[in-house]
Amino acid sequence: MTQRAFARVIDLEHVAVRELNQALHDLAPDSNATHWQVLNPRGRHALAVGLDAEVTVEIEGHAGYYCAGMNKRASVIVHGNVGVGAAENMMSGFVHVHGDASQAAGATARGGMLLIDGNAAARCGISLKGGDIVVKGSVGHMSAFMAQAGTLVVLGDAGDSLGDSIYEAHLYIRGTVAGLGADCIEKPLADRDRAELHAKLQQAGLAGQVDVGAFRRYGSARQLYHFHVDHADAY
Amino acid sequence: MDETPRTPPRFSATFDPHVLAEIRRAAATGIYDIRGAGAKRKLPHFDDLLFLGASISRYPLEGYRERCGTDVLLGTRHAKRPIALKIPITIAGMSFGSLSAQAKEALGRGASIAGTSTTTGDGGMTNEERAHSQTLVYQVLPSRYGMNPDDLRRADAIEVVIGQGAKPGGGGMLLGQKVTERVAGMRDLPAGIDQRSASRHPDWTGPDDLEIKIEELREITDWQKPIYVKVGASRPYYDTALAVKAGADVVVIDGMQGGTAATQDVFIENVGIPTLAAIRPAVRALEELGMYRKVQLIISGGVRSGADVAKALALGADAVSIGTAALVALGDNDPALEAEYQKLGTTAGAYDDWHEGRDPAGITTQDPTLAARLDPVLAGRRLANYLAVMTLEAQTIARACGKSHLHKLEPEDLVALTIEAAAMAGVKLAGTEWIPGQGAL
Amino acid sequence: MCGIVGLFAKDAALEAELGAHLATMLASLSDRGPDSAGFAVYAPPVRDAVKLTLRGPAGYDFDALAAALRGHLAGGVSIKPRGTHAVLVVPHTEVTAARNALATLAPELVVVGTGHRMELYKEVGAPAEVARQFDLAHMQGSHGIGHTRMATESAVTTDGAHPYSTGPDQCLVHNGSLSNHNTLRRSLRRSGYTFATENDTEVAAVYLTAKLHDGLSLDAALRGSLNDLDGFYTFVVGTETGFAVLRDPIACKPAVMAETDRFVAFGTEYRALTDLPGIEQARVWEPEPATVYQWDRRA
Question: What Rg do the C-alpha atoms of chain B give, in angstroms?
C-alpha cells in the first residue's frame, strides 16, 4: 500500500463508516481534499456511497455490500474485493475493483464506468440502465438480466442465462458463454460496435492490449417487446 | 289455450355471465385479461365493523373547543427529520406513466393543501411532482426506473417497495400505449414497448440483505429521512416483524383491495388478503417486538371515508393511505363522461382498463388531449376537499367515542357484524362477548 | 434469513484456535441473525466412545445425571456441561441403552446431536452471547459450522435455531426460505419422522436424514434436494470429516468461500472472514448454483 501524498487518511478501525460518508458528503465544491485513503475496510458495507464530487477514494482492502453505491463523478478504487451490489445505480464517475466482485455488480447503473480486474459473480449488470461495465475476468450466471441500456464488456467467460429478458444494452463477450437467456441472441459485430467496444476498452485502460475482433456481440431479439401468446414459453 | 309453463333461464353461480365472457375472451386473444384497480369482489371490510359510541358508561367530546387531534409523526425510529403530517391520510404511490402529469400535479396540490404527503411510483420522481408536493415519499422499487441519488436526497422519505396489495409477488406493468417518449426516457426503455416487470429487487433478496440495503440508503442520505418498507398484505405478522428487524422506520401494508395501474385480473382477485385481515397481525408483531408506535404502521387498500380511517386507526394503524379513492376525488369514473365510457364498452363506475391509456377523465392516460381535460388546480382542490371531509368524519366518530385524538381509538371501540369480520379484525361479534379465531399463532 | 459460517482446518496447528475463530465469525454476522445462534464443533474423538450433546433447562444438574446413568450403563460415562447443554460420552456399545435411560431418567432433556466427534450447541439470544454461554472461544476441533438466525415464518425458540442434526456426526445450517416445506413435512411424517418446529430448515434437515437412511450418499442426497426442495437456499452440512455446501439454482442468497493452505472457510458475507489468519492472501470465490461442494479431511 503506497502512502499517497496529501491524501486524507481514514482508518475504519477508529472512525465509523458514518463519519467517512458524512465527510465525503460534506465536501465543499472548492475543497482541496480531493484524494482520500480508507484503511482497514474489512468487508464493511456502504463504503463511499452516494458520493457527488470529483474526488478519488482509495479503499485499501476488501469492501462489503454496495461499495460506491449511487456514485456520481467520483473515482473509487478498491484494492481488494467487493461484496454484493458494487457501484449499484452508479450515475457517473469511475469505480475500479482490483479484486473480484460479488453478485449484482453494477446493478441498475445509469452512467459512468465500473471496471473489475478479477471476476464478477452472478447477475453482473442486472437491470443495467446506461452505465458501462468492463470485467477482465469472467461473469456469473444471469448477468445482464433485464439490461435496458449501456454496455457490458467481458474479457473472460459468461455464465448461464446471459442477457435473460434483455432490452437494449450491448453485451460484448470474448470468452465462452455457458448459455443465453430468453430473447438474447448473438448479433453481428459491425463497425460501429467495434468502435463502441474500442471506446469502452480505451476508457478502461485496455486499448491496444485486447483485440476487439475477438469479441462476440449479444443483444435483444426483441420478440418480447409486445406480448404474443406464441412466446408465452419465454415468460 | 294450453301453454306449458316455462321455467325462466337460470345462470350458473360458477359459470356466471362474467366468467363465460372471460373464457371466450381468453380463447379469442391468447392473453390474460389485464386491468387496473384493486380486487372488485365483495370481501370482509371496514363496512362490517361498527363503532360503540358513547352512552352512559362513556362520554363524548363536544365539537369545537374539545379538540380531537389528527396529527401524526412518521419515522421517529431513526430519521433525523421525521415527517409531521396534519392528517393521518396520505396519498399512496402511483407512477407518472400510469397517471398523467396533470393527475400527479393535482395529487400534489391537494395533499399539500391538506398538510399530507404524496408518493412517487414505478417511474421515478418528476420535477413537477417535487415542486407541487410539500411532502414527497420516494419509492425504491424492483425496477429502479429513474432511480437516482439526487431524488433520494430531495425526497422527504424513502419507501422500499417489496410489493403492493393488488399483486403481492408481482412487479410493475405498463403497456406500450402508455410508454410515451417522456415516460420511456424516464424509464430508460424504448418508446412504445410493453414494459416487462421485475418482481424481485436486483441487488438484495430477503430481510437479512434488506437490512444492509436500508443501511446503504440511510448512508447515502445521511440518516436524515425516514425509511418506509411497503408490502402487499400476505403474511402481515411475519412481514412486519422482518421489516422491523431489517431496520424500517415505518411499515406500509396494502390489502388486496389496493389498486394498481395494470396487472392480470387473476392476480388482483386471487393473491393477497383483505385489508381488514392484515391490520391486527401487523400490530401484534409490533407489540411483541416492543415497537408499537415506535415503528409506525400505515394501512391501505380500499380506504374510502372517514369511517374507514377511524376504523383502521382503531385497529392500531398510525395512518392510512389512499390511491383509488384519491383518483375518484380527482374525477376518475365520473358519470358526466358516461357517453365516452359507453364508447369504450364500459360504464361510469366500472371503468378499469386503465392500462389502455384512453381514460376520458384524463387521469390514467398519457394522451395529451385527454390529459389536458384535467385541470390540476381544480382537481387538487377537489382532493383537498375530500381529505378534509374524511378528516372531519373521522373526528366526528372519534369524539362520539370520547377520544381527544384519533390515535386514542382502540379495537375495543369496535364490534363486527359478521363472524368473518370479527375473526379478521379481532373484535367482538356485535351483541356478544365472542371474538372468533383467537388461539392460533 | 440468516448468517452462516464454516471453518475447516487443513493445518492441524489451527485446531486449537478453531473455536476462537468461529466465535469471531459468528459475532460478525449478528446483524443479519439477531434472534438465536448455534454451532457444531468437530472436536477430538474419545476412543471407542460416542458423544451425545444434551440440552436441558437452565441450571440443570448434569453431574447428577451422569452419576445416575452410571448405574444403567456398562463402561465409562463422563459428562462436560456447558451452560444449558452438556456433552455426554458413553461407550459406543451403549448408545441405545443411553438413549433409553435418558428417556426414563431425564425426559426433560433433548438429545441435540450425536457422533464420534460432533458437539452441537444452540440457543436463543444474540450470537455473541450464545457463543459466550458455551465458551466457544476455547473449543478446539478440526472443523465447525455455525449459524445466526433471523426467524422468518416460525417462532424464535431454541428448537427453531440451527444447526439441525441430520444423523451421527452430521448437521445442517441454512440461509434462505423454502416454499414447499409444509407438504414435505407431511410426507416425511407419514414415513415416520417427527418434527419439533414449524421451521422450514428442520424439514430440509429431516429430508436429508431420510435420504441418507435410504442409503444415498450425502452428495446424492443434496443433489436430490435440488429437485425436491423449492425456494431459495444456501445449505452448509457438517460431516464427520468435513463439510458440504449447496446453493439453489437461482442462487440469490449470498455465499463466500475462502481458501489458503491452512484452511477452507465459508461465510454468508466476506465480513465474517476478515479476521482469519492469512485472509489477505486467500483465494476468495463464490460457489456456483446447483453444485455440491465437499471438503473432506481424508481427501
Answer: 22
Q: How far is CA B340 from CA B175, B229, C28, C31, in A?
A: 22, 39, 63, 56
Question: Domains, chain C, ranges and CATH?
Answer: 2-43+124-296 (3.60.20.10), 45-116 (3.30.70)
Q: Which residues of A touch C251 (CB under 8 A)?
A: 122, 141
Interface test mutation site (partner A, options B125, B220, B355, max chain A beta carbons within 10 A): B220
Closest residue on chain B to C176 (Cα): B206
Dihedral-angle region of residue B331 (phi above 0 means left; psi in -120 to 50 means alpha; beta otherwise)? left
Q: How confident is the model at residue B440 (pLDDT cuts 50, 70, 90)?
A: low
For residue A65, which residues of chain B lie inside 8 Å, CB to CB?
209, 212-213, 216
Q: Is ipTM strictly over 0.90?
A: yes
Chains touching chain C at 3 or more Cβ pairs under 8 angstroms? A, B
The pTM of the full predicted model, rounded to 2 decimals, is: 0.92
Residue of C1, C2, C224, C295 marked active site: C2
- Alpha carbons A158 and C188: distance in angstroms, whole number: 40
Q: What is the pLDDT of residue B178?
A: 84
Q: Do A83 and C289 touch (CB under 8 A)?
A: no
Q: Which residues of A touch C285 (CB under 8 A)?
A: 100, 119
C-alpha to C-alpha distance for B277 and C249, rounded to whole angstroms: 35
C171 is catalytic: no
AA identity, residue B81 = R
> Is C92's pLDDT higher than 90?
yes
Query: Domain of B384: which CATH number?
Result: 3.20.20.70
- The full DSSP string for A12-46 is TTTS-HHHHHHHHHT--TT-S--EEEEE--TT-SS
| The C-alpha cell that represents B323 in the structure block | 390511491
